[in-house]
Specification:
The complex is a heterodimer of chains A (268) and B (809). Chain A is an alpha/beta fold. Chain A has one domain (33-261): Rossmann fold (3-Layer(aba) Sandwich), CATH 3.40.50. Helix content of chain A is 29%, strand content 23%. In chain A, helix 3 runs parallel beside helix 5. The longest helix of chain A has 16 residues, at 217-232. The radius of gyration of chain A is 18 Å and the shape is globular. Chain B has 809 residues and is of the alpha+beta class. Classes of the chains: A alpha/beta (268), B alpha+beta (809). The interface between A and B is large, with 39 and 35 residues.
Chain lengths: 268, 809
């Protein structure tokens, strides 16, 4: 287990949500999606010796057994492997949704392992966008507000957040669905909405966990095409998938088995 | 072993903790609800049950006018309407060594004069020991409050000290407190504790000691004076009850040759009032029980539903292998039903044990069978109802859950908060508070029950404090009981003044501490068949007002003011004309208004009687049964000190002044009834407040559980722990604010409606009570309580592992 590091140093902060957040405010992303925060030569993701064991059904599961992974800025990486191989766990420790037992995780130049939950929360809102397999949208809240609320969490005022949300909805072809709740959208539309939400903070890194897993083939293709467009625009993407078709759209495929990278993962 | 038994065994093995908890919950809930409802029913019926045992009197006959001492009671007893007649001597001067001075009616006891009394009429319900032997002058019974006040009960001795016949005459003539008994000393054994409708415990009093009939038989002179001159009063039960009263009244006047003899329906009126009072208090207790029932139904129902849903996986598996839906429902209900049955049995036992402390309030003085009691109706209805609730909750929970993507209606308030750019925790907290949402498991957050609970809590607290403000105002202001005076002078009775009343009135009028004075003669009159007390409204100097409930005071001999109860009895309105009859004839007087009459001057209540001007009085009556003065004092002056000083001054300066008594420390008789009502709304308010806290806490905790997916998602998107805690805090406070916004005005209105009911019941002068301090406090307190109930759910929300939640979702 690595020792916790101090608060991130580089900082171009947006307005904090509250005063207490200003003390350890992680660095904020500026500019277009995909631009790296750290200087030249620093990758978007750097994982070294990551180990993670948890207990499931009374038995220990060694989800990560010493994983090393580098993802460069602007790269589109697909993590593939059989169920239980640790690819979602790897995604979660990169996102700071889970913690490693050993090893180091560096995202856009910042060590995220050993950080407390609030630091990680602020780091995510500033640098990471996450897309889940089952969308995880806020029920009963309009498509617009599903984007606006996370944007406001980043400190944007309502008007600015709405403006960005409208832009994203237009970009993702949901401009005419802004006032509708997720329940009335198709699966593909919901996932596009989830992607729009993930992009609301103009993240340096977009993480997607089986984003097409809950969609039919048409919806899956919609989403895959969207990821391609984002990648073409410079967005760094790490995507977990079972599907070779989806993985084929990525710039690089990293295969995992039994908690390890089974094929070398050269930096693109 | 069939499937049901096998399932039940499995349930008991793996879910025994929940089932025990459910059994305890049901036991507590049923115990409270059964106790409250049974207590309310028992209290409400207490007066009637005592009446059924004691054969109460319908009327009293009181020869309280001059020359009426020697009534031919045999002639009255022979009247055709009379079923039973018993004679009592009220206010007999007897002291007891064991009782502090001033207690036991200031040394004045009521003594039965013949064997009918406390036997075939006003028969006591014996609560402990036995009735007194009518042949034994040295036996007595006491009431429960006597036991509480003096610690003397069955088997204890009381040394009664009687006065000589001559002293009895002197005491009665001088209207003075008896001291220095010089008659027989009678060591008396208390042989029983009894409840009685008329001679029973009055609220705020110290109970009664009722000597055996044998005392009057053995010492008649010490009871009735040297020549039997102390008048007895008759308690009469009529064959036809209240319907026979008019004929009986005429018969009494004819038989005694005394048109002024008073036939009072006070025993019946007292019973009616007692029924109203215990009914009012029982209604509060019933409301308490129903509130507890609603809360219990919600909590038990949700517990059972949660339990059944947690078993849904296993039940679905059984369904897949061939279980019918009916069988599924039976299995789902089996465990909870078993636990509920055990809990209900324990709850019923709790209610039976708790019945030993019921009835409470005024009803406690009337219950002929205090102690443990089983209310079969409550158990017969309640037990199946509780078990039915559990079965229904289980059955409902086995229904297929609605689609997880059902569209829930959004809250316009939360939407508005979002539109104006409120911080995210505020927007999300408002959504959690005001939108039921749908968890992916199909459950909904109990938003409406939480809002209703919060409103009920605030309403209950505000209403109870509003009533309490009314009680405090009434107890501090005798004017609310229609009494504008703070002290009184008794100048004479039975047509004769004890001294120079004009000089005494002049002295009082000139006294700098006296701010208002009323010369008051009163005597018996009637309106139709109803006997009334006629009061002379004769202001002296600045005078004293009549506390009016409608209209104005009488201005000349053609006008009359009716007491509120008298007006209600006659069914008239101001401006009507009523025929008032006195010994000088009948006059039609115009009703100028309704107002309270002086309390304690006659056997009348302060709502029965009429006011007329001095000229009007002289037109109706040739004499008076009582003559006194009512006066108010400068604020801050001690009535006791003023009474002592004025008594001395009148004795020194007024001819015959030593026979004029000044009395202070006036406490309205029914103040204790108002006092007795105070606890009920406060208890209910406190209970509703606890329920409200529980409802809000339950809603908040449920929201955190049901919406852990949303919370986990927001934390994944960057919400900090502090912001997550703020979401829960805002949710709880939003429910509190909803409770305040709706509950405060409703509580104020409800409190005033209740207080209006109390004012009509007692009765009282109604002034809208204002509980300003309580309302000012309830706002911050509600928010503090809301914040407190949010602490644990908030902590749970911040400790939720995001990854686990999102994976589960």
């Amino acid at each position: 287990m690595t020792a916790p590091e101090s608060a991130p140093e580089s900082a171009q902060e947006s307005a904090p949500e509250s005063a207490q957040e200003s003390a350890q405010e992680p660095p904020q992303e500026q500019g277009a999606a995909g631009e790296g925060l750290a200087g030249e030569g620093s990758g978007a993701v750097r994982v070294r010796g990551a180990r993670r064991t948890f207990t499931a059904d009374l038995a220990p599961v060694r989800a990560l057994r010493g994983v090393d992974l580098d993802v460069a800025h602007g790269e589109f990486v697909a993590l593939m492997g059989p169920s239980g191989c640790g690819k979602s766990t790897l995604l979660n420790v990169i996102a700071g949704l889970d913690v490693v037992d050993d090893g180091t995780i560096e995202v856009v130049g910042e060590r995220v392992d050993g950080r407390d939950e609030d630091w990680l929360a602020r780091f995510r809102r500033a640098h990471i966008g996450i897309v889940f397999q089952f969308f995880n949208l806020l029920d009963g809240v309009s498509a617009l507000d599903n984007i606006v609320l996370p944007a406001m969490l980043q400190g944007l005022r309502r008007r600015a957040a709405e403006s960005r949300a409208h832009d994203l909805l237009d970009l993702l072809g949901l401009g005419d669905r802004a006032g509708q709740v997720p329940a009335v959208l198709s699966g593909g539309q919901r996932q596009r909405l989830a992607i729009a939400r993930a992009l609301a903070g103009e993240p340096a890194l977009l993480l997607a966990d089986e984003p097409t897993g809950a969609l039919d083939s048409e919806g899956g293709l919609e989403v895959l095409e969207l990821f391609r467009r984002l990648h073409a625009g410079g967005q760094t993407i790490v995507l977990v998938t079972h599907s070779p078709e989806v993985a084929a759209g990525a710039g690089r495929v990293v295969r995992m088995r039994d908690g390890r990278i089974s094929e070398p993962a050269p930096v693109a | 072993m069939n499937v049901l038994q096998a399932w039940l065994r499995l349930e008991l093995r793996r879910r025994w903790r929940f089932l025990v908890a459910l059994a305890l919950l049901v036991a507590l809930a049923t115990g409270i609800v059964f106790t409250a409802v049974a207590g309310a029913r028992r209290g409400a019926s207490s007066v009637d049950r005592l009446m059924a045992v004691s054969h109460p009197a319908d009327v009293t006959v009181v020869p309280n006018v001059a020359g009426a001492a020697a009534v031919d009671w045999a002639a009255v007893r022979a009247l055709p309407q009379v079923d039973v007649l018993a004679l009592f001597v009220p206010d007999v001067p007897i002291l007891a060594d064991e009782l502090p001075t001033g207690l036991a009616d200031a040394g004045l006891l009521t003594v039965p004069l013949d064997r009918e009394g406390l036997s075939t009429i006003e028969r006591p319900a014996v609560l402990a020991g036995r009735a007194a032997d009518p042949d034994r002058p040295d036996e007595a019974v006491v009431t429960p409050r006597f036991v509480e006040a003096f610690g003397l009960g069955v088997g204890d001795m009381v040394t009664l000290r009687l006065f000589s016949p001559e002293r009895v005459d002197a005491i009665k003539a001088a209207l003075v407190q008896p001291t220095g008994p010089d008659g027989p000393v009678v060591p008396t054994r208390i042989v029983g504790v009894v409840a009685l409708p008329y001679f029973g415990d009055d609220l705020g009093a110290n109970g009664r000691l009722l000597p055996s009939v044998g005392l009057a038989a053995r010492y008649p002179g010490s009871i009735r004076g040297a020549n039997g001159s102390v008048p007895a009063a008759a308690f009469v039960r009529l064959h036809g009850g209240a319907a026979d009263v008019p004929a009986f009244r005429e018969g009494v006047r004819a038989a005694t040759g005394n048109p002024g003899i008073e036939v009072s329906t006070e025993p019946g009126d007292k019973a009616v009032h007692a029924r109203e009072l215990v009914g009012f208090q029982a209604a509060w207790l019933l409301a308490f029980g129903l509130a507890a029932l609603a809360a219990a139904a919600l909590v038990i129902g949700q517990s059972v539903a949660r339990h059944v849903r947690s078993e849904s996986g296993d039940l679905a598996s059984l369904r897949a292998i061939g279980l019918t839906r009916a069988e599924l429902r039976r299995l789902a209900a089996a465990g909870p039903l078993l636990a509920a049955t055990a809990g209900t049995v324990v709850g019923a036992a709790i209610s039976v044990v708790a019945s030993a402390w019921f009835p409470v309030g005024t009803a406690a003085a009337f219950d002929p069978q205090p102690g443990v009691s089983v209310d079969a109706l409550v158990l017969v209805v309640g037990v199946p109802a509780v078990l039915g609730l559990v079965v229904v909750a289980a059955a409902v929970a086995t229904r297929p859950v609605r689609s997880p993507w059902t569209v829930a209606r959004g809250s316009s308030i939360a939407a508005s908060a979002a539109r104006v750019g409120m911080p995210v925790p505020v927007v999300v907290g408002l959504r959690f508070a005001l939108e039921p949402g749908v968890s992916r498991g199909g459950g909904r957050v109990p938003v409406r029950p939480a809002i209703v609970g919060a409103v009920a809590g605030v309403l209950g607290v505000v209403a109870s404090f509003t009533v309490a403000a009314g009680v405090a105002d009434a107890l501090a202001e005798p004017a609310r009981f229609g009494q504008a005076h703070s002290a009184a002078a008794y100048l004479g009775d039975l047509g004769t003044d004890g001294g120079d009343s004009a000089a005494a009135l002049a002295l009082l009028d000139a006294d700098p501490e006296v701010t208002g004075l009323l010369d008051l003669r009163y005597g018996d009159g009637s309106i139709g068949d109803t006997t009334i007390t006629v009061f002379e409204y004769h202001p002296v100097g600045q005078g004293l007002p009549i506390i009016m409930t409608a209209g104005r005071e009488p201005r000349d001999a053609t006008e009359v003011v009716l007491g509120p109860s008298t007006a209600r009895l006659l069914g008239v309105t101001p401006g009507a004309t009523v025929p008032i009859t006195g010994d000088r004839g009948t006059r039609d007087l115009r009703v100028s208004g309704f107002g309270f009459v002086p309390e304690g001057t006659e056997t009348n209540a302060y709502t029965d009687g009429v006011w007329v001007t001095p000229d009007g009085y002289d037109v109706l009556l040739s004499s008076f049964s009582g003559h006194g003065a009512l006066f108010a004092l400068v604020p801050g002056v001690s009535p006791e000190a003023a009474a002592e000083r004025l008594t001395a001054e009148i004795a020194a300066k007024v001819p015959g002044g030593e026979n004029i008594g000044i009395f202070s420390g006036f406490t309205p008789q029914r103040a204790s009834e108002v006092e007795s009502i105070r606890a009920f709304p406060l208890l209910l308010g406190a209970f509703l407040a606890v329920l409200a806290a529980g409802a809000v806490g339950h809603a908040v905790a449920t929201a955190v559980r049901h919406r852990r997916g949303d919370l986990g998602l927001l934390r994944a998107l960057g919400m900090t722990k502090a912001q997550t805690g703020a979401v829960v805090l805002v949710q709880a406070c939003a429910l509190g604010v909803a409770g305040l916004v709706i509950g405060v005005p409703l509580g104020l209105a409800a409190g005033r409606i209740v207080w209006r009911g109390v004012a009509d019941l007692i009765p009282l002068q109604y002034l809208p009570p204002v509980a300003g301090t309580a309302v000012a406090l309830v706002i911050p307190l509600t928010l503090v309580v809301a914040a407190l109930v949010a602490v644990l759910p908030g902590r749970a929300a911040t400790r939720t592992r995001i990854n686990d939640v999102l994976r589960a979702e």
